[in-house]
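Page 42, continued from yesterday. The earlier attempt failed because a stray header line got pasted into the input along with the sequence. Redoing it now with the clean sequence only.
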Amino acid sequence: MRALRQNLIFAMTTNTRLLSAAAVSIAFAAALSAADITIFDGAKNIGFPAKKCEIKDGALLTARDAEFEGNWDLSKNLDFKFDVENASNTHTLKLKLQICDSKAKTTDFLQTGTVELAPRERRTFVYKHPRPPKHPEVAAKIKGMRASPFGGGDRSSLPSDYSKIEKIKLVNRHRVPMKLYSLTAAEHDPADVPAWFNMSEKEFFPFVDKYGQFKFREWPGKARFDGDLKAAAEKERKELAGNPGPVNRDRFGGWTAGGKREATGHFRTEKIGGKWWLVDPDGNLFWSHGVVRVTPSSAITPLDGRKFYFENLPQKDDPFALFYTTKDELLVPHYQKRGIKETYDFSAANIFRKYGDNWRDKYAEIAHKRLRSWGLNTIANSSDSSIFLQRKTPYIERFEVKGPALANSDGWWWPFRDPFAKEFREDVKRNLKERKEQLNDPWCIGFFVDNELHWGGPEDLAKCALASPADMPAKRAFAEDLKKKYSGDIKKLNEAWKTSYSDWNDFLSKTEVPKGADSGDLKNFTAKMAEEYFKAIRDELKALAPNKLYMGCRFAGGSNELAINAAAKYCDVISYNLYRDHLKGFKLPKGIDKPVMVGEWHFGSTDRGPFHPSLIMKADQNARAQAYYDYAKSALENPAIVGIHWHQFSDQAVTGRFDGENFQVGLTDVCDNPYPETISKVREIGYKMYDVRNKAKAE
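This time it went through. Structure tokens are written below.
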């Protein structure tokens, strides 16, 4: 989206790691001018934080956000200079600067620029906030995108009136101690904007070319003609032929130099010398280095109300009209849930341009070759079954359970389903039977079931049961447990909970969650529901696929320990989606000794391709590549972790998918061209990963 001087730019006084939702510009911070506005200066006793913080030795000391409230006219002052020090001896400090008027929303902290400071490091940064476009009506027409070409997006709008700024915040999400010495809003150059910031509607729309790329910016590898795609295919064919893959690997990608273990014909887990491993069907040690969503349909984008964004969409009788119909099967329900009627699949259309007739088969063939050449050995979840069922690369499948939903349990994707309901187990069985080819397939490592459920706190699932209707099986199970504890006497429950239920039917019929409900009762039933959830899935999975690993539910970052303890009891592998810089120090809760699979992680930048730099931003493609290597190495050195799966194989659409995500997270771009910097580092760690794992310290 952004070239050298674009809407989120940091300039630094010295060489530093720098991240932003734009490309990097490096400069020295200039001296203050008379028109600069001082928001805070600890040495001069100017400005006070909105929240109580200690100010000592000319610096604001905090491990939280540094937030300032007031009334500022910043219409000419959008270059923010801040002098800050990381006060931690051990942790990296990440800061993001936001400004808000009364209308700006800030629910997504990921689109503002970000800086990093190493432990005890002090720097002065300049953050160039997005300038207001000359024609705000153009930016107002950008919808359905987490990040827009003008800054902001669906979850983080920019101020509508820069003359009435009410809040300035340095967001410190990870609560690392810092010292802020000064923060100044410096006068900016109004001409310092990308060309499209001055475009009228007629000039700007359509802003996406026929390849699904942003028209008004250039970057290395951007496609301009169909011939560019074909030339890239031929170049890569030769490159893959010269790099067929690492040595000492068996047909599954297991380590032939690591010593033979028992060969069962299927994947299994084993702890060896204080480190967890997978063992492949041939009895070789295996560590799962994989990638999510290996599919030609990664860049599908909604068209509803947005067709004028796109240049040269095909007519219905055009061969490229096929790509109005191609789908990512796992994500189809999310489009349906939102009532999205029409989409276009730019990534598959480009693959058709690139490979011609039989494009699906040719893409599948090169996908397997790429994975082997790049040092990857797993097609992770949400991938195209026509690719992984060729049985050339091990795979892990995922499905999501449907059934009656608990009240108030809506999470990121779907509500929490009642595991006591008969429909829950029936849906697990249905999903497995639909995958009958995979149930005894040696190439299938196992199954993830569900993704990033909202487990809440240690009392929350019980509270959701209480808020559910009387016929909800979970609520009835809770009532039976309470009857046993309180000897069937509703008066004893009322005394303990400070309630006034007339009888047990009254308990079932009420949907208010009593404020005085006994915490122990709530925690006990939450734990019971978590156990029932994992037990029901394990029972049905092992009945139909006894040789496949139950890979867990893909916890989002952390989760409450009641859920993790239940997972440890019934899952073969506990899975997490862990978006962070590295896995040093990652541990399961005390007392749990199980293998761990990282189901999702990634890094992105915006120096090429889509507008959003992903959940973990890096300055450019070189920084992103190094971050891949560092994360993977830290995982290999962690004795509990048995694999990591990058999210995802190819970039998302520049104009966003069903939920607006338009992340630069692919190993390949929308035109199916690999990012060479990242691939170089994927190969580097992938080729030596078993040596790194073997030499890593045990528990």
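Notes: Confidence is low (pLDDT under 50) at residues 1-31, 107-111.
Reminder to self: strip header lines before submitting.
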